[in-house]
């Protein structure tokens, strides 16, 4: 009996996809339980690169059952595109994929609202969303009046309900969108036809995943929960309002999947050996200079979904200690260590100074985080290629010292170190069960 959970501990893009792929062989079921097509998970396997967004990375292993739960917001066109792309490359997508009938569906007005409202309530800085309609769909989910779930697409009143919502959206969102465009005003009849087409194609995958997962957990199946985004983007506990609209830290795993916390036996927290962030919001250790550019170039730090250059900076141990605690992390996976291999010195942020006061707890208000001046500790680099190393003990002494310090500051052991995109470029600590 075991449920393992993989959670990003920074602002997303921690290379969770690679770790999930590595752990997939040990599991029977892989689950995506929050977020939507704002996620971009890259998996390199058998010399092939796969970019997944909504479908769990487990799909690349045909024996694994993949589940997308009701905590996810689902864009039918993008999931069908993903299914077609995978099938076109010879990957089986059939009864090994299950989509929750409770998942909320993204409609054209959600994408339009994302574009029209991407302003935060803090200093006029944009949230910088992925424009996939994620926030507006979650807003309608919580608001209830204008929400449609996947299971609703198959009900006889779907057309009527859609007409009611489209009219309300035209009245509310239309004026904000300016002159009529090909997207707006929204034409209910056209949208209904389009979505009925999607519904027909998605029908074989639609199921009650909550009951399925409860049965699976109770009968001792090995389940892997694949978190999307990162804990600092958690809507309740992250750098609000510069966050995504779901609970992307470990505390969201239960509500998103429908599996009570008692089943979750292990949580692996995934971090980069440095920090990145896409979109707006404060980022205390950001290096908006040649150091950041160097990391961006070596780490190919450009968004998978939007291709935006990622903001890059030093490892922030104040933030990671917080998110490791918040997510109930047992052990860390440190990814992309190879990216910083050629640097002479490395900095780790061990505290913040806010208005002259030294702080080691992560601030709850974004304005305090904006004023936080990082207190750094400087460690010597190792300046040698580590991409062919396969054992922890063979890493250069300074690389081990760097990892030890991250681990000590985060208060968690390092179980996995990644030193390149391939599966083989992974080092497991001896203690791994
Ligand atoms: P993966 O799973 C990195 C960021 C966006 C923006 C904020 C809100 O690949 O780690 P949204 O479209 O979700 O409303 O945007 O969240 N964001 C991500 N950043 N990786 C992701 O996913 C992200 N998903 C959302 O850039 O700042
Ligand atoms: Mg991403």
Overall mean confidence score, pLDDT: 95
The biggest beta sheet is recorded as: 10 strands, mixed
Instruction: List the ions, cofactors and other small molecules found in this model.
Output: 6-O-phosphoryl inosine monophosphate, magnesium ion
Q: Distance between the terminal alpha carbons, to the nearest Å?
A: 14 Å
Report the radius of gyration as a whole number of Å.
22 Å
Quick one: overall form?
Answer: globular
Q: Number of helix segments?
A: 12
How helix-rich are the residues, as a percent range?
25-40%
Largest sheet, spatial ordering of strands: 9-7-5-2-10-1-11-15-19-20
Question: Structural class of the secondary elements?
Answer: alpha/beta
Taken as a percent bin, the fraction of beta residues is: 15-25%
Structure summary, number of beta strands = 20
Task: Give the low-pLDDT segments.
Answer: none
Keywords:
binds magnesium ion; binds 6-O-phosphoryl inosine monophosphate; 12 helices; alpha/beta; globular; 4-stranded mixed beta sheet; 433 residues; 10-stranded mixed beta sheet
Walk me through the structure.
- With 433 residues, the protein is an alpha/beta fold.
- Helix content is 29%, strand content 22%.
- It has helices at 16-24, 76-88, 108-116, 134-143, 158-172, 188-202, 209-218, 252-257, 290-299, 317-326, 366-371, 397-410, and strands at 2-8, 29-32, 41-45, 48-52, 65-68, 73-74, 97-100, 104-105, 206-207, 222-230, 264-272, 275-277, 311-313, 315-316, 331-335, 345-354, 357-359, 373-380, 414-418, 426-428.
- The strands form five sheets. A ten-stranded mixed sheet has the order 9-7-5-2-10-1-11-15-19-20, sandwiched between helices. Strands 14, 16, 17 and 18 form a four-stranded mixed sheet that branches.
- Strand 16 and strand 17 form a beta hairpin.
- Helix 5 packs across helix 6 (188-202).
- The longest helix is centred in the middle third of the chain and has 15 residues, at 158-172.
- The model has no long low-confidence stretch (mean pLDDT 95).
- Bound molecules: 6-O-phosphoryl inosine monophosphate and magnesium ion (MG).
